[in-house]
Amino acid sequence: MSIQGNDRFQRKLEDRAHKKSGFKILVVDDEPSILELVKTALETLENYQVSVASNANDAVKCVQAADQPFDCFLLDIQMPDIDGIELLKHLRRVSDYAETPVLMLTAMSDRKYIDAAFLEGATDYVNKPFDFLELRSRIKCAHSLVKARNETKKSLQCASDLQSKLSTHQQFNFEDPIAVEGVDRMLRYVEFDNYVAQLARRKLFSSQAVSVKLQDAGMFYELAGNESFRDAVHDVASCIQSATLDMDAVFSYRGSGVFLVILHGRKAADSIRGTESLGELIAAQMRTHVADDRVEVLVGEAVSLRLLSRANTAGALQKAVDAVQHLEADLRKNDYPQSFDVAEGEATTAKGEKRIYERVLVELFGEESYLNFR
């Protein structure tokens, strides 16, 4: 072989070695056959660098001994001594692994395990027996998600650094499904979609989806600014969490001032006696805990998920979101009726239109100045 050929061959080896060492996965399962199959398949299909552990204690030792943090974890749930969900909780408390993709690779299909895994921070949930090509695809999706989140964090840090110089700099767009921290039973956007998809795969639905929307969210965002809008989203999330405290519920913020709540089982449905009562519960929480009287919410009609299939998961969730959007549109029609002067050909607004502009004036001029302005 020529020197040039040797060089090309060497570069290929180096490229392959770099690619192999570029993505590290730790698989934790107490079944040796599963460990061997997953390791062989992933290293063959993607040249991943795969480490294995047969129990949680060994997994912790692998994490502590690693020169570089792992990029992804595959965890079985049912293991001796410490189960996979407890291991997941431990990993999420380690700063290096707060955002690392964690896929539960398990035969446990009861909803209590699915709920527990996602609420402790699982990225996705894959049932055994599994298809290796699908597993590879879902690992890639999880990794892409984390890369995007890390890039967003860097952008937010840059925005924070520039804030003193550019007071109008926007850290996120109105449509962005921003993360809300410190609220129980709340999942982020992608994890929520994966959670609902997993329920659909297992045909575990006796549930309904309800949408909750920050009223006049677009105007609030433009008027109050980035941080106040974020605070309002957090306030609404906290009120939803408190209002559904005694229910079997999981929820998520979807962007544009909209939340989706999944209520499970007949007990949850009976507890609220329809979405109107859920709205009353949330409003009661707001009166107690939210000082900003501009924060108001609308609650859409419930959408049954009883017949949900894997194929129409997204459609069912969108139907729930559409319900609250239509409700707000109908309220605006009633709030802002128009009468037309035929001679002038111009629309004049009735008294209902005052509400939203009164809020604008209060924000711009303050309560006292606004009262004088009137």
Q: Helix and strand layout, with pairings?
A:
Blueprint: H1 3-21, E1 24-28, H2 32-46, E2 49-53, H3 56-65, E3 72-75, H4 84-92, E4 102-106, H5 111-119, E5 124-127, H6 132-162, E6 186-187, H7 189-202, E7 207-214, H8 217-224, H9 226-243, E8 249-255, E9 258-264, H10 265-272, H11 275-289, E10 297-299, E11 303-304, H12 313-335, E12 338-341, E13 346-349, H13 354-373
Q: What class do helices, strands and sheet pairing give?
A: alpha/beta
Number of domains: 3
Question: In total, how many beta strands?
Answer: 13
* Name of the CATH first level of the largest domain: Alpha Beta
Order of helices and strands: HEHEHEHEHEHEHEHHEEHHEEHEEH
Major sheet, described briefly? Answer: 6 strands, mixed
The CATH superfamily label of the largest domain reads Response regulator
Distance between the termini: 90 Å
Q: Considering DSSP H and I runs of 4 or more, what fraction of the residues is helical?
A: 40-55%
The Cα radius of gyration reads 25 Å
Number of helices: 13
Q: Could you name the CATH topology of the largest domain?
A: Rossmann fold
Query: What is the average per-residue confidence, as pLDDT, rounded to a whole number?
Result: 79
Task: Fill in the keyword field for this structure.
elongated; Alpha-Beta Plaits; 3 domains; disordered C terminus; 13 strands; 13 helices; five-stranded parallel sheet; 16% strand; Rossmann fold; six-stranded mixed sheet; 374 residues; alpha/beta
